[in-house]
Write a structure and sequence with these properties.
34% of the residues lie in helices and 17% in strands. It is α/β, with parallel strands linked by helices. Helix 2 runs parallel beside helix 5 and helix 3 runs parallel beside helix 4. The protein is globular and about 45 Å long. Bound molecules: ligand CA2. The site of ligand CA2 has 17 residues, from loops.
Length: 152
């Protein structure tokens, strides 16, 4: 049987994590984020698939690739959070739960970051917890899908 996995998607400019704006986003890199996700899920015998893109359509395609096979999704759509009906529509088709993550506290920032096209279709939203938010999101997905992750 194929390995159970959580899909972790990161949107535009998150490939620059750890290289600038450390006061907002911290000093950890995207590789650190993906390692944290792998360690967190791995402790439950769950794998991860990761994808980062600066292109909206590529993120839509990643959702479509894993929409029926992932246990759940952790998504930081970055700026597309505030603009993308296309990513929302794709995520509305996934079989498992969605956790939305933002490293910074978007509600303490500019007004345009306060609205998300994803929050109302997400099972949960984690903001302002730094990269630890990804760990919290995976822990929550494990809880929400424990009935499925016990099948083996
Ligand atoms: O706080 C978050 O995680 C955001 O999703 C990050 C997005 C921003 O547009 C959202 O409003 C909130 C921006 C990601 C840019 O990441 C960078 C990291 C380091 C250096 C430059 C950009």
């Amino acid at each position: 049987m194929p390995e159970k996995f959580i899909a972790v998607l990161n949107g535009p400019n998150l490939n620059l994590l750890g290289t600038r704006q450390p006061l907002i986003y911290g000093s950890d890199t995207l590789a650190d984020v993906e390692r944290l996700c792998a360690e967190t899920a791995g402790a439950y015998g769950i794998g991860i698939e990761t994808f980062q893109s600066n292109h909206e359509g590529e993120l839509v395609e990643a959702v479509q690739r894993w929409r029926t096979t992932a246990l759940g999704f952790v998504v930081n759509a970055a700026a597309y959070t505030h603009t993308s009906v296309a990513i929302r529509d794709a995520l509305a088709t996934i079989d498992g739960p969605l956790m939305e993550v933002h490293i910074s506290n978007v509600h303490a920032r500019e007004e345009f970051r306060h609205h998300s096209y994803l929050s109302d279709i997400a099972s949960g939203v984690i903001v302002g917890c730094g990269i630890e938010g990804y760990r919290f999101a995976i822990e929550r997905l494990v809880t929400l899908t424990s009935h499925r992750s016990q099948d083996a």
